Amino acid sequence: MATAVAAADTFPKLLAAHAQARGESPAIREKDLGIWQCWTWRQVADEVRLLAAGLAARGFRPGAHLAVIGDNRPRLYFAQLAAQSLGGIPVPFYQDAPAPEMTYVFQNAEIEIAIVEDQEQADKLFEILPQCPKLKHIFYDDPRGFRHYKREELSSYESLLAEGEAWSKGHPGFLEEAVARGRGSDTSIMLYTSGTTGNPKGVVLSYDNLVRSSVAYTQLEGLTDQEEVLAYLPMAWIGQNLFSYAQWLVAGFRINCPESAETVITDMREIGPTYYFAPPRVLEALLTQVTIRMEDASAPKRWMYRHFMDLARRVGANILDGRPVGLAERLQYGLGGILVYGPLRNALGMTRIRVAYTAGEAIGPDLFVFYRSLGINLKQLYGQTETCASVCVQPNGQVKPDTVGTPLAGVEVRVLDSGEIVLRCPGLFVEYHQNEEATREAKDAEGWYHTGDAGYFDADGHLKIIDRAKDVGKLQDGTLFAPKYLENKLKFFTTIKEAVAFGDGRPVATAMINIDMQAVGDWAERRGIAYSGYQDLAAKPQVYDLIRECVEKVNADLAADPKLSGSQIHRFVVLHKELDADDGELTRTRKVRRRFIAEKYESVIHALYSDIDHCWVEAQVRFEDGRTGTVRAQLAVREAKTFPPQAAAKAA
């Protein structure tokens, strides 16, 4: 079994090897109507074979691109494998992207066939059909809502399987020959970048890129075919493709698709994953839920939680990493495991996790320490879509809250004099699709990829990421200004969902802040503060006082940092609306589009750097039904207390 899998250099070959070696073992599960449905490796291979034959019957050819759109669903995984079996290239989309955002990708990739999850996704494609004349066929998985649709482009997933069954009878051995022709150097998938500064770029990744990266992680963590993995992140994201698709096929473990985004925590508790991946925003949301529940608990429970969490922050990570801890504290921690940590891990669905990763955005050190203090082996890794998320990872026993670890085997990393990180690695992408100029800018003649990130190696050889190189700047007095670092410290507080810091070339640092509606709403209700919605709640003086306390705690922490003590936040506003990807303010991976926000909220920034205490703002928003409108509000501008350098202890 191991030999057959090791010899396979493409995903279709890996699927065939697993089907032959462990055909009756569970490969993928999906929760539907409250019941877990299971496909064995043999069933997956059989369905992929029929689906590939159906695509071939519709004219899908080697090198063609197949659009895959929807939540994590087994049939969408099968669609990717079917396209790859024919020498084609799947192009997964973010399922929450509105139709206009999809147009460019369909045009750039010249997509002719799409397989979508449901009516919502199909309707988006009908909207852009006039701009995408090459799109000829749309196949849907979920039939709900399609009863009265009469579109010649539209067909069901089942009809495609039926076509495949009929077509394969007249072409015996076709699929096996197509799979055998595949090579590791062939293109495996194309993923589009976030497009923070312009149109997204199609990142072309080969099988070698993804398979070698998967093998590196599998060997590092000793992953086996017995791992349970929850597949819940967007299929268009490199993290999902590496950890819940490529590694699934390399290691042969089981992946589990939750019923919906709303049931992820419940489904996670049922599955009990052993190997877990979550971006910081997911971990922040989980912590917010925990905090809200504890605030609503009885006084004795709140005291017990705070007491044992204070202990966990002191000794939990040391115990996890095998460092010496006094007997008394170790015994107290054991008691905390029974009373607090164990039940909390169970509530989060993390009881069985052996290793968990976080990446995609820098994570606040306090948030990172929280999870490790519970005994959850959470580690940071570093990578980008262009590197298959496989550059650095924290080794067991050498985990630091403020670094991303050391380079993986076979990875070379250098830091230029400018502070930019450049690297070479087995996962490095082939090219940007139809964009030679951008490819040359990213990869130099010697094969070094310029990441655009700024950072440095610490004394132990761990890489520390400061920010995007283009975002790192200086205040007028020369103080280092790293906006993402400030934003992450703010977002550790459960009451703050998003933050955007400003300061480059200016006298002081300032910030625009989004409150977390769930956390602040619960806080307000417990204090009898009435509100009618987000805008009303965000404008409450009591909420401003709450947020000011958070900002001042961040400033107290910054005062102890010799490099960043001068970048404390002097003034802030609480925005009247949440920053939203549909409004162009965030990318689909929730990265801040700084330039766009600076232009859109120019009047707010002007107020932050003047002596006025309020400003008017108008912002265009997109509603869930696709309509657009304008929201107007008067925002208060507040001062925050700052502290002399090294004064954090006194402030506390």
What's this model, at a glance?
This protein has 652 residues and is of the alpha/beta class. The protein contains 23 helices and 28 strands.
Describe the structure in your own words.
The protein has 652 residues and is α/β, with parallel strands linked by helices. The chain folds into three domains: 2-202 and 233-256, Rossmann fold; 387-470, Roll (Luciferase, domain 3), CATH 2.30.38; 473-651, ANL, C-terminal domain (GMP Synthetase, Chain A, domain 3, 2-Layer Sandwich). The protein is 40% helix and 21% strand. The protein contains 23 helices and 28 strands. The strands form seven sheets. A five-stranded parallel sheet has the order 4-3-5-6-7, with helices on both faces. The protein has a five-stranded mixed sheet with strand order 12-13-14-15-16, sandwiched between helices. Strands 24-25-26-28-27 form a five-stranded mixed sheet, sandwiched between helices. Helix 9 (207-221) crosses helix 10 (238-251).
